[in-house]
Amino acid sequence: MRRTTSAGSRLTRSAVVLVLAALLLGGEVPFDSGASALSLSYLVVAREDGPAGLPAAELAVQQAGGRVVQAYPQIGTVLAYAAGDFAARARRAPDILAVGATRTAPMSDGGSDAEAVGAPAPAPPPAARSAAAQDALPGDDTPPAADPHGARQWNLKMMGPAAGVRSPALRDVVVAVLDSGVDDTHPDLRSAVDPARSASCATGSPDSSPGAWRPDPKVGESGHGTHVSGIIAGNRSGDGVLGVAPGARIAAVRLLGAVGQYYGENLVCGFLWAADHGARVINDSYFADPWKYNCPDNPDQAAVTTAVGRAVRYAQHKGALVVASAGNDGQDLDGPRTDDRSPNDRVAGVPPVSRRLGTECIRLPGGLPGVLDVTAVDQDGSLAGYSNWGRGQVQLAAPGGDPDGGPAQAVVSDWPGGGYAALAGTSMSAAHVSGAAAVEAARHPGATGAQLARLLEREAVPEDCPSGHVGGSGCPGAAYYGYGLVELPTKALK
């Protein structure tokens, strides 16, 4: 039975349930053998974009006493490990645009909360939990779900009759899932995941060795990417989960490393890998750690935004549509808001920094230009109480589910080891949009990512802002739903 709650209580409750999927593991960052202290990781961005900027970035690292561990020639950026006042020294180099630490503590003791509510993730040892993770509800609040046996669930029905239709044309569409890893041994995903296009970017360096893209069961929320992939392209005829675009190919790109974070270098590596391996759509159901929002007046956060922005732009120029989750904080992204959970990789016992922010501070990658930022709706089509929103900040809405409603009102999808789980969150809504984009890409083989976005926006069902929800009865629908609720037209694929 669905529990009824007021809008206010739903928002209060969402502040707690958001971290159900964020049970975190800690670990050490790499040690710089050339220094006497533990290293931090830095993104060093040359003024000149592209391969021509790479020599300047590498030279700046060397002269500032750091060590280049990964080059990203596509965007004139390198990943460096260093200690001490490396950033200040490297920023003085004339050909360097930005330098920023991608983490705040050499001993990482926190992790990321991927945008899912109610993920039955394994709990880490108490000593490894961050302050945010201590607010998590018990993991058994959302029990494993039953095999749906190929049935069209409420979320597919909401998207129209073309959702979940199998077509040979989808085999030519690659959707990159940048996430915690994907279990390609799951029977619903064996035919979907393309090993030749999959890799791990968990260290910031691409690793395409067999199985590197699979989740690490020792890391909290490691099943998240498998769940997202099932929503997009689950495909086992007569059984299992039926995805929005069954038959589409999944490029599984694992971002989540042993410390349970989605750091800037993981994102940069992931976007570049996906773009260079033919992704038409790139799904991003997470936000970049360690800062929930990255602000331009902070040199570290600004550098990460610049590097990730270049990587996203590179993927867009290669023809990919980037889709992101709007977030589960119940906040207006178009207004002032508070971030009291960052940085989430701080040393145990250190409190978070409470920041009052404006629209200049953005979530990565959802706040970047050209990215489709997606809000979540419940089964009745109303904005989910946990979902972020904001006029001019979000583009589409899609099924995200109700974390209080159990498997009947959450979204049931795949879980590592051949199982199933019922999750709710903007992670799920973003995955629905990525699946819809894959269908449109199959219908329009020559379309660019920007053109796919326009198709989805044009075909979305406009929604009015209902009374009794965030913002009151006078709230314009665009603030909640963007162009509207994503829907696939009835035209059949061939």
TrEMBL record:
PROSITE patterns, per the entry: SUBTILASE, SUBTILASE_ASP, SUBTILASE_HIS
Descriptive protein name: S8 family serine peptidase
UniProt keyword Ion transport present: no
InterPro entries in the record: Peptidase_S8/S53_dom, Peptidase_S8/S53_dom_sf, Peptidase_S8_Asp-AS, Peptidase_S8_His-AS, Peptidase_S8_subtilisin-like, Peptidase_S8_subtilisin-rel
Every Peptidase S8/S53 domain range: 172-460
Biased composition (Low complexity): 128-137
Active site: D179, H224, S427
The family this protein is said to belong to: Belongs to the peptidase S8 family.
Biased composition annotated in UniProt, kind: Basic and acidic residues: 334-344
Keywords from the UniProt entry: Hydrolase, Protease, Serine protease
Positions of the UniProt region annotated as Disordered: 104-152, 184-229, 325-352
